[in-house]
Design brief:
Helix content: 55-70%
Organism: Kribbella steppae
Protein name: Branched-chain amino acid transport system permease protein
Strand order of the largest sheet: 1-2
GO molecular function, one term: branched-chain amino acid transmembrane transporter activity
GO cellular component, one term: plasma membrane
Radius of gyration: 21 Å
Largest sheet: 2 strands, antiparallel
Keywords: Cell membrane, Membrane, Transmembrane, Transmembrane helix
C-alpha cells in the first residue's frame, strides 16, 4: 500500500504489468495445475478482455481514413462485460476442451491464437488494425484512474498521477482474484478438478461430472484471462495486435511453470518474475556485465531474459518440479522447525 509513496513511475508501471500477468496466470494455473488441461491459447482470451474493454468503453471516432467503433459504456460496465465476453469465448471452446487432453488440447488451443491474430489485424473498426487503438481510462464512482490535465493530486506530499492510481487498482484486483482462486482451489470444486487431473475415469466413477467441470475450468480460466487483459490494456494505454501473439502465450505458460502449477501464490510469483525481468534488465543493461544497451552489439536484455526464463524452467523441472511455491513452502517449513527448536531452548 505504501509503495507509490516511495518509488518512481517506472516501478509502478512494472508493478501494473505484474498485476495483469498475475491475474491471467491465476486462470492458467487453475486450468493447467488443477484441471490438468494444457492451453497454449491463453493470450487469445487476454486479447478478448483487452479489446473487449476498449471497444465497450471507447467512443466512436474516426482516425484519419479509418473508423473505430465504440459503445461508450461506463468503464465499470465495460470491464464486467469484457470479462464475461472472455468467459463466453472460453465456454464456446469448452466442448473441444472436454474431448481432448494433453498435447492435443494444447495444439487445438494454439489455433485460437492464430485466429485471434487474424481478426485483430483485419477487423480495423474494432481493433484499429496494425496500429492498434487507445485504451479509455478507467473511472470508478467519479474517480479517474488517469492523469487529469491541469489538476495534480498530492498524498502525503507525493504527486499522484496515472501510475500511482493504477497501482492501487491493480493491487486490489489482484488481491481479490488471488483470494477467489485460493478459495476455489481449497473447496469442493478444487478437489473435483484435481480428481479429474489425476484419474479422469475414477473421478467419473466417483460421481464427478467430468465434462461439466472441464467446461467450468475453461470458463473460469478464460474470465481470469479477460480480467488480466483489461489490466494489461490499462497499463499500456494503447494496445496493438502483435502484443497478444504466441510469445505472450508462452510467457504465461512460463509463469505457471516457474511459480508452481498447482499453487495460486506460485502463479503470482511467476508472473512477477516473467513480467518484470525484461524491463529490469533493460533499465540496468549499461551496468550489468554481459548485456548490451539498446542499439549496441551483444546480448540484448530481451534475449537475456529469455535465457533466464529457459534456465529457470529447466532448473526447476530437474530439481524442484513444484516450482517457486514448493521452494517457498520448504523454506517456511525449515524456518518453522528452527523457530520451534529455538523456543524449546
Amino acid at each position: 500500500m505504501a509503495v507509490p509513496l516511495y518509488v518512481d513511475a517506472f516501478w509502478l508501471r512494472l508493478g501494473m504489468f505484474a498485476f495483469a500477468g498475475a491475474v491471467a496466470a491465476l486462470g492458467l494455473g487453475l486450468l493447467l495445475g488443477q484441471a490438468g488441461q494444457l492451453s497454449l491459447g491463453h493470450s487469445f482470451f487476454v486479447a478478448v478482455g483487452a479489446y473487449g474493454y476498449t471497444f465497450l468503453a471507447a467512443e466512436e471516432r474516426t482516425v484519419g481514413v479509418s473508423h473505430q467503433a465504440g459503445l461508450a459504456l461506463p468503464p465499470v460496465v465495460a470491464v464486467v462485460l469484457a470479462v464475461l465476453l472472455a468467459g463466453a469465448a472460453g465456454l464456446v471452446f469448452s466442448p473441444i476442451a472436454a474431448r481432448l487432453r494433453g498435447i492435443y488440447l494444447g495444439i487445438a488451443s494454439l489455433g485460437l491464437v492464430f485466429v485471434g491474430q487474424h481478426v485483430l489485424f483485419n477487423v480495423e473498426a474494432l481493433t484499429g488494425g496494425f496500429n492498434g487503438r487507445n485504451v479509455p481510462g478507467f473511472t470508478l464512482l467519479g474517480w479517474r484512474f488517469d492523469s487529469i490535465p491541469g489538476e495534480t493530486l498530492y498524498v502525503l506530499g507525493v504527486p499522484f498521477g496515472r501510475e500511482e492510481k493504477l497501482w492501487y487498482l491493480g493491487l486490489t484486483v489482484t488481491a481479490v482474484a488471488y483470494l477467489s482462486c485460493r478459495n476455489l482451489v481449497r473447496g469442493r470444486p478444487g478437489r473435483a478438478l484435481r480428481a479429474i487431473r489425476d484419474r479422469e475415469l475414477m473421478a467419473g466413477i466417483m460421481g464427478v461430472p467430468v465434462t461439466r467441470y472441464k467446461a467450468h475450468a475453461f470458463l473460469i480460466s478464460s474470465m481470469y484471462a479477460g480480467l488480466g487483459g483489461v489490466l494489461l490494456a490499462l497499463a499500456f494505454g494503447r494496445i496493438v495486435p502483435e502484443t497478444f501473439g504466441m510469445a505472450l502465450a508462452v510467457e504465461y505458460l512460463a509463469m505457471v511453470v516457474i511459480g508452481g502449477l498447482a499453487s495460486p501464490a506460485g502463479a503470482v510469483a511467476g508472473a512477477a518474475f516473467v513480467s518484470c525481468l525484461p524491463a529490469v534488465l533493460e533499465r540496468y543493461a549499461a551496468v550489468l556485465p554481459g548485456l548490451a544497451p539498446a542499439g549496441a552489439e551483444g546480448i540484448s536484455p530481451a534475449v537475456a531474459a529469455k535465457f533466464a526464463f529457459g534456465a529457470a524452467i529447466v532448473a526447476l523441472l530437474l530439481f524442484e518440479p513444484g516450482g517457486a511455491a514448493a521452494i517457498g513452502g520448504r523454506l517456511r517449513s525449515r524456518s518453522g522447525r528452527a523457530l520451534h527448536r529455538f523456543r524449546r531452548r
